[in-house]
Design brief:
It is built from 14 helices and 15 strands. The chain is an alpha+beta fold and 534 residues long. The strands form four sheets. The chain has a five-stranded antiparallel beta sheet with strand order 5-4-8-7-6. Strands 10-12-13-15-14 form a five-stranded mixed beta sheet. It has a three-stranded antiparallel beta sheet with strand order 1-2-3. A hairpin with a 5-residue loop joins strand 7 and strand 8. Helix 10 crosses helix 14, helix 11 runs parallel beside helix 12 and helix 12 runs antiparallel to helix 14.
Length: 534
């Protein structure tokens, strides 16, 4: 490489070389040589050469700029050609890929989206309109779509069957829930900040719940028990919390202070934090059990009183007999006959007490016969009007459908007399006594007034007063012998015991209701004679 006139040249020198035709383009005549060459070497030197002429040396100088210019031109042309070929190749390749790969894949994607968005498209097929490889993929996709369709069909059928079973089961449980005679309630436990049970909320109740409690579903659902029954004790919250927390079921008898009813309760945990209760109202059963215990107690007392009364009555007969004999033998003067008379009076009073004890124990000798109820009651009421005084108003309201009973009329008088005198004593400041009679029927569908009641036809004798009333605790003992609330010396405590014994002896029963400050009602049920004997 050499520089001539500031321009780079490729330069080479060859010695003892002959001229060639290629050399003659510049060295034949000056007119054919480059201007710079003529200016450099002159018009005579290195010119007028011939083909094959032997020269001492040949120098070859090639201007790099001109040489590169041709090369650059060729390179540019070649680059343009290659770029055109590349662009054509890319276009053809893109069309080929789009037609053979992208378009089928886009169809697969579109079909998959259709299946995902609309289950009715499950099972749709893609036609074999692609290359061999894409057709294989399309067949695989179609097989997958068909299998998914089959799976979806089976799943839908299973869902329909399970839904039908669930609906049937739910209908059965709903029918049971709404028609069961047991009360049902679902509750959610509520806790305070320390995690202690503070209340529970009503979530669901059935119609029997409303019937047994007197509370409406709309009035309790969503509310807490302390909102509905403020008297609820914390003790029950602890019991229900144990059930809801441990999942262990429990059963117990529960007296609701707010509802004043007894319930038999079964509690269980359907899920953590909740508990459900199934319950029955056993208030009547508890009352019957109390009545049974009271009846058994009175029965035992009656046996004891009857045995004692028999023995005591026998001794009194001896005392009275001998006293009367002595009285007949003594003269009428002196203090001895007077004192003997006191002995006889005391013995007679004691005999009357034993008679009441025998009546209570149902061992009194009686003379039962068919008697009309209303006339005897009317007669007894008339005779008692003088005894009760003017401060007490006594009214008799006879029933139009009365009838006959089979009993000793004297016993009927005893019942009325004892109850009326008790009513008078309960009204020291005066008041009203109402005596009624009626006829009624007790069947298997009726609510039995007490445990001793049995279905049948009865005549009712009711005695109502508006006196002080009897407390609940006292009601449990009023028929016990010698039990009295009167002051010492004001009563023997045998009046109501006698009534109870007489009624029981005649296969009847007594229902008593009383309210403190309002009054008391005694209702005597006596078996009515059949119409043929009435």
């Amino acid at each position: 490489m050499r520089t001539f006139d500031g321009s780079p040249y490729f330069f080479t020198l060859i010695r003892g070389e002959s001229m060639e035709k290629g050399c003659l383009r510049c060295h034949s005549i000056p007119d054919k040589a480059p201007g710079k060459m003529v200016a450099t070497y002159g018009a005579t030197r290195s010119f007028n050469r011939t083909d094959g002429e032997l020269v001492s040396a040949i120098s070859i100088r090639i201007p790099l700029h001109e040489a590169y210019q041709d090369a650059n031109r060729f390179s540019a042309q070649l680059s343009l050609l290659l770029l055109g070929i590349l662009m054509v190749t890319y276009y053809l390749q893109n069309r080929l890929i789009t037609g053979l790969v992208i378009a089928p894949l886009d169809r697969f994607r579109s079909q998959a989206e259709s299946i995902a968005q609309n289950t009715e498209q499950v099972g749709a097929q893609i036609p074999d309109e692609h290359s061999l490889e894409m057709n294989d993929i399309a067949r695989s996709f179609n097989n997958m779509s068909t299998r998914i369709k089959s799976f979806v069909d089976r799943l839908e059928q299973t869902i329909q069957e399970r839904t039908a079973q669930l609906a049937e089961s739910e209908a059965k449980f709903r029918l049971l829930f709404e028609n069961m005679t047991n009360g049902f309630a679902l509750h959610q436990m509520l806790y305070d900040e320390q995690g202690k049970p503070s209340d529970y909320r009503f979530i669901e109740v059935n119609p029997a719940f409303e019937t047994l409690t007197g509370l409406s579903a709309s009035g309790v659902i969503g509310k807490t028990v302390k909102d509905v029954i403020p008297e609820t004790e914390d003790y029950w919250l602890e019991i229900y919390d144990t059930v809801a927390g441990s999942g262990a079921p429990a059963s117990f008898d529960h007296f609701s202070e707010g509802l004043q009813r007894y319930y038999k309760v079964w509690a269980f945990c359907p899920q953590p934090g909740y508990f459900a209760t199934i319950f029955n109202d056993i208030s009547d059963l508890v009352q019957l059990e109390d009545q049974l215990r009271q009846s058994q107690k009175l029965e035992a007392i009656g046996r004891l009183a009857g045995g004692v009364a028999h023995d005591f009555n026998n001794k009194l007969m001896v005392i009275l007999g001998n006293a009367e004999l002595i009285q007949m033998a003594l003269p009428d003067t002196g203090k001895l006959p007077e004192r003997l008379q006191h002995i006889i009076q005391a013995a007679e009073q004691s005999r009357d007490i034993t008679t009441q004890l025998l009546a209570f124990s149902r061992q009194q000798l009686t003379s039962p016969r068919p008697v009309e109820l209303n006339p005897i009651v009317q007669s007894t009421v008339t005779s008692l009007a003088v005894l009760i005084g003017d401060a007490v108003r006594m009214t008799f309201i006879p029933g139009q459908e009365s009838g006959r009973v089979h009993m000793d009329p004297v016993q009927l008088d005893q019942i009325i007399m004892n109850l009326v005198l008790n009513a008078r004593d309960a009204m020291p400041d005066g008041g009203a006594i109402t005596i009624t009679t009626a006829r009624t029927t007790i069947d298997t569908q009726s609510r039995l007034p007490c445990k001793e009641a049995v279905p049948g036809e009865y005549l009712l004798l009711g005695i109502r007063d508006d006196g002080a009333g009897i407390e609940t605790e006292t009601l449990e003992h009023i028929f016990e012998p010698f039990f009295t609330t009167k002051e010492v010396g004001s009563g023997t405590g045998l009046g109501l015991a006698t009534v109870y014994g007489i009624v029981a002896q005649n296969k009847g029963f007594i229902d008593v209701s009383s309210q403190v400050g309002v009054g008391t009602v005694f209702t005597i049920y006596l078996p009515a004679l059949p119409a043929a004997l009435d």
